[in-house]
Amino acid sequence: MAGSSGEQAPAYTSILGISDEAARVRALNEHLSTRSYVHGYSLSQADVDVFRQLSAPPTDVQLFHVARWFRHIEAVLGGVRGVGEPHGLQASKGRRQPQWSPPTGSEPCKLRLYNSLTRNKDVFIPQNGNRVTWYCCGPTVYDASHMGHARSYISFDILRRVLRDYFKFDVFYCMNITDIDDKIIKRARQNCLFERYRERRPPAAQLLEDVHTALKSFSVKLDETTDPDKKQMLERVQLAVQLAAAPLEEAMRSNLAAEDIARRAQVLLEEAKDLLSDWLDCTLGSEVTDNSIFSKLPKFWEGEFHKDMEALNVLPPDVLTRVSEYVPEIVNFVQKIVDNGYGYASNGSVYFDTAKFASSERHSYGKLVPEAVGDQKALQEGEGDLSISADRLSEKRSPSDFALWKASKPGEPSWPCPWGKGRPGWHIECSAMAGTLLGASMDIHGGGFDLRFPHHDNELAQSEAYFENDCWVRYFLHTGHLTIAGCKMSKSLKNFITIKDALKQHSARQLRLAFLMHSWKDTLDYSSNTMESALQFEKFMNEFFLNVKDILRAPVDITGQFEKWEEEEAELNESFYSKKAAVHAALCDNVDTRTVLEEMRALVSQCNLYMAARKAARRRPNRALLETVALYLTHMLKIFGAIEEESSLGFPVGGPGTSLNLESTVMPYLQVLSEFREGVRKIAREKKVPEVLQLSDALRDDILPELGVRLEDHEGLPTVVKLVDREMLLKEREEKKRVSKTGVTWARGLLKMGKPLAFT
């Protein structure tokens, strides 16, 4: 403050002598107007004394000097106010902050997952803080992976990514490979025996005789089949073999040339492969002694499975377990179940005593599908084709009991154990491997819907018998079935599409988008309609990303990045936050990706309307707002695994690992080319040179699409340059030509009929 306290005291004395408060305040205001205000000065006692005469700062704007000084001195002398003390500077030593109340807010939504153990959406609560232990049933590797596998593993990959990357859980994901199983044993023997048969090159007469013998036993199998779908499949196989045999029989009756007979025999051999393989296994399977075939087959198909998963952008598990590597642990697991009183040995095999387990007060059998308990057809399918003979069934105390350990028969692999040489049962494999790694209780167990009973119910029973608990799994998640154009998909029915074949038709992203557009727990129909919806969504999102990239490429100085928001920006931003809240609510609701994609589509539609309005008004859209929206959508699609990590905004161009470099490297050159083309077009229009305009159109319509480049001309606006998937561009070009040709044909037809053309 200018001037010492001694200099100010006389002035204050005369001011304090004024009796009328209003006049005193005016005099004080005039005095203060002659003094300079310095923030942070040392207060004099005279300052404090004069302002303590005021109960509050004046409200008259003309007295702003007094008001300003009052508030400053009040802040400097502020303190705790005692009860009953006066207000203002008179009580500065007793001042305190007013009481603060938190906002009411709203209850945050919690993640709920559909739990097969309750058949309800349960709040997800991990057992150990933020850590989530998760076991997923892997494939039985004896043949090519198909779209049924993709249904499960893409769906679980999406769930895993959402829990890890969106909800920020620390997920430990374990998956198994079943490389010891009745299907593998049977297929390995069949392949081995058929190759031996082929190598012997049987004469045509011998081949025909063997095929007819195989058809007789096949007919018996066909007559015993009651399942209508399976019966229809077997009838197709039978008919195909009979049709392939007829030309060979005719050739032999007609004494055709040896080359012709050999060619027809080769056709029959290939067509009858499955039939002959099954017959050879039934007659000679027990004589197979080369145990290496039982490891070679699953090793090959496991490798193919991993290649398929990588091609589908499915994350690898944190740990992978193979049954063949855990046989000692499985033997110990079975032994403890026997020791706990829930298993019994019979003729070299060991079975689980379902009646003993179910009668225990602490246990319950058939938690997932109690209504299926006692279903002998399902139980026998779970035991395997090689384990349902009459002698095997007679070894059980109850038809509902299931094998923990199987005594090996001739032609089967075996491992030593306390009960004699044998091999693991199917259900025990997952229990032993998951129990070894995840302990007595895991948070999540996943698998396909068809595994609920008996496989998963038996897993639960034997694991809880081993650990003597009732909570081996907290949340059981089952992915829905996959149908093909409305028909049941089944490898055993030979009605399936391999993952490799599916990827020849559509990209991994398109398949994943199709899955995202459906609930993970419901049936998904893999059809042309389903895939068309996925393709349209991908194209819709990609166009938005390309438009935003074009806006962001426009040159602007650093301050120009931040523009004033008008009402349109405020409305779009409000909608953006509303959609983000809806996305969060949908993910909390059993990871409802279908609703998420609908909300994302609606958000993009609103952005498109905003950009169109700005374009019509010849005004630039707000680049920062659109970039924020595009980055959010990119982030969500990355979480779902639909965008590779390399892409910073939108879908990558040119495949994984190349998108970022390709776009950042090529686009500046394309931009220069576009600007040069615009200049040439302008001159050509002014000089009226149509040939140059035609060349310019050819560059846009014919040449650049072949390179994956799209130019979009807009009247009065700069040309938009977009890097797009080449195949997509070529399809667009062909569709335009088709539509154009149809229009021309239609017009000619009208003219021929003498009808005038009306244009609107």
TrEMBL record:
EC no. given is 6.1.1.16
Cell compartments where the protein resides: Cytoplasm
Q: Name one GO biological process term.
A: cysteinyl-tRNA aminoacylation
Gene3D superfamilies given in the database record:
1.20.1050.130, HUPs
Tell me the keywords, alphabetical order. Aminoacyl-tRNA synthetase, ATP-binding, Cytoplasm, Ligase, Metal-binding, Nucleotide-binding, Protein biosynthesis, Zinc
Q: Which stretches make up the tRNA synthetases class I catalytic domain?
A: 126-534
Q: Which residues form the signal peptide?
A: none
The cross-references to SUPFAM superfamilies, in alphabetical order and at most eight, read:
Anticodon-binding domain of a subclass of class I aminoacyl-tRNA synthetases, GST C-terminal domain-like, Nucleotidylyl transferase
Report the GO terms under cellular component. Answer: cytoplasm
Q: Which domain of life is it from?
A: Eukaryota
Q: Name one GO molecular function term.
A: metal ion binding
Q: Which cofactor does it need?
A: Zn(2+)
Q: What does this protein do?
A: Catalyzes the ATP-dependent ligation of cysteine to tRNA(Cys).
Q: What is this protein called?
A: Cysteine--tRNA ligase, cytoplasmic
Q: Which organism is it from?
A: Rhinolophus ferrumequinum (Greater horseshoe bat)
Q: What is the lineage of its organism?
A: Eukaryota, Metazoa, Chordata, Craniata, Vertebrata
Gene this protein is translated from: CARS1
